[in-house]
Each structure stands twice: as structure tokens, then as C-alpha cells.
Amino acid sequence: MSDNIDFNDLRKRAVSQPLVVDKYTADPSAHVFDGKIYIYPSHDIDAGIPFNDNGDHFGMRDYHAYTMESPDDKLATDLGKILDIDEVPWAKRQMWAPDIARKGDKYYFYFPAKDKNDIFKIGVAIGDSPSGPFTPDPKPIEGSYSIDPAVFNDNGKYYMYFGGLWGGQLQKYRNNIYSNGNELRSDDDFAFGPLVAELSDDMRGFSTSPEEIIIQDENGNPLLAGDKSRRYFEGPWVHKYNEKYYLSYSTGDTHFICYAIGDTPKGPFNYAGKILDPVVGWTTHHSICEFNGRWFLFYHDSSLSEGVTHLRCMKVVEIFYDKNGLIKKINPYS
Ligand code: FUB
Predict the structure, then answer these.
(1) For the domain bounded by 2-319, which CATH number is listed?
(2) This model's pTM is above 0.85
């Protein structure tokens, strides 16, 4: 997507600028703790691995946390490294999009990585402060798989959403069981949905088996796998607005952030529209966070690296709802 782009012009047209310029950051999960914004992105590096559809070139090895006093700040402040792959006994490579949750006075940092068998699992690391340090559990969460954990706290009940296609390996599972022979569903079959599991009281495991979420169209039918500009691909995020649950996600190979609205945290969710048009770079990934009554979309593009797919930069832009609770779509380069 970077061929023939005039990046000077693109930067001028961009609705937001990179929040971090001395590192590459992506997949920002933003939360407000004690009145301050904390952001937990992937830390992109050039691991020297050629591009492929499995995403092997996303060879990330650690995480940094960031903070902002306000989303109107120009830059986010680096709180330093909070976890390194060498500290995680089960993880071999590819520390992808993380998230965090607070329960009581503890912070639980969730992250996907490939294990020694090259299968993505989700781990947890625990800390006493949003800036860490975080101590990882020695094993991944039992029953976890695939990528992109996002944790939603619904009045003290915690749900983890996860799953991503292609390199994220979601298509290898049926009923939570891996088989290398499993592949993508055909275009006229139901689309894969993200998984949701309830977290156990200690936040270190699942208390329910992962269940596949259904996203349905305007007629109440599940979206089909061939409906590529609306169906789920990766990067789930759930927030609540006016007592409704909003599930937003990336459509992957069609590069949109879309959303669907439901009455419960497990859905079903009714497809509601697009939030963000495609950004420069292949991936798009976001979180949504309320700060002082305003709502913000944290997302990334590849503008800082002038289009390098796996070297991204996180950004933030305000979003607005209409009177029916629909989110106004954003063109990232208006
Ligand atoms: O950052 C690696 C992967 O790229 C994430 O896990 C996906 O959501 C995509 O952004």
C-alpha cells in the first residue's frame, strides 16, 4: 500500500501524528487508571525476517508501556520496558498485540506469543503498578490460543476476547481444538468470530471454555466468510456505551476497523458499520477508551517508517457517536 505515496503530503493530511517517534509501536491498548492514560502497544522491530502471509516478519521480542496526561498531548511518555521474551519460559517468538486489566490493586498484563512448537498461546504477567514490573506466569493460560487478547471489565466480571486469522492461527481451531489440517472456512460458510472466555477470580486462567462470538447482518444472519469488508479477522475490542456492548475489530485483508453492537458481553452482535478507513500499512488495530467524557480511538499506521508493514506507529483520534449510538467513520487522511 506504500507504492507511490507522497509521505510529506500524507503526514499533512493525517488526522493524527505518531505518539512515539523513537521506537516503532503498534496495536495500542489504552486504558485510564487513576485519571491517567496508559497505553500498551506492540514494540515493532526489524527482525530481518522477510514478509510472508503468516506474519513471520512481525518478530517482536518485548513490550514497553506508555502514558499520557491527556489524549490531546502530542507525544506519549515511555515508561520503559515492562516484559522481555527472555523472561517468559514458554515463549519462543513473536510477542504480538497485548492488553492489560486491573483488579483490586493488581495489574494483569496479557500477551500472545508463539510457544516452542510455534503455536500461539496467551500469557499473563502480574504487577503492582500500571508501569510494572510484571512477573510472567511460567506457563500460558490453559485453554488459550491464537492472538490479540483484549480484556473487558463489566462491573467486576472480566471477559477475554481473542483470536486472529492467517498468521494468528484461528483457522486451525474447531471447538477450541487445534488441527494443522484445519483451514479457512469457504466463502459461503459462516465467518470466524473472535472467542470470548470469562477470566477466573485470580485473573490467571479461564473459568469458562472459549465461545465463538457471532456477528450478524441486518437480517439477523451470521456474517459469511466471503463478506470480507465486514467480517471479523483479528484485533477484537469491547467497550460499553449507553448500556450497549460494542465489539470492534479489524477486517484484516480489507483493512477496515468495523464494529457491531450487542446487548450482552458475549453477543450476538449486530454489525453496525465502519469506524476507520484503511491506514498506510497492511495491518490495522485499535482500542477505544473514554477519557473525561470524550471517546478516543487509539490505532496505528506505517507512516513513520514510510510504509514498512511491520514498523508501525501508534496514534490517537477522537471519535463521535450520533444520537442513535452509531460511531462516525474516520478517514485517517482526510
Ligand atoms: O502486531 C502483530 C499483529 O498485527 C497483531 O497481533 C495483529 O492484530 C496485527 O496488528
Answers:
(1) 2.115.10.20
(2) yes
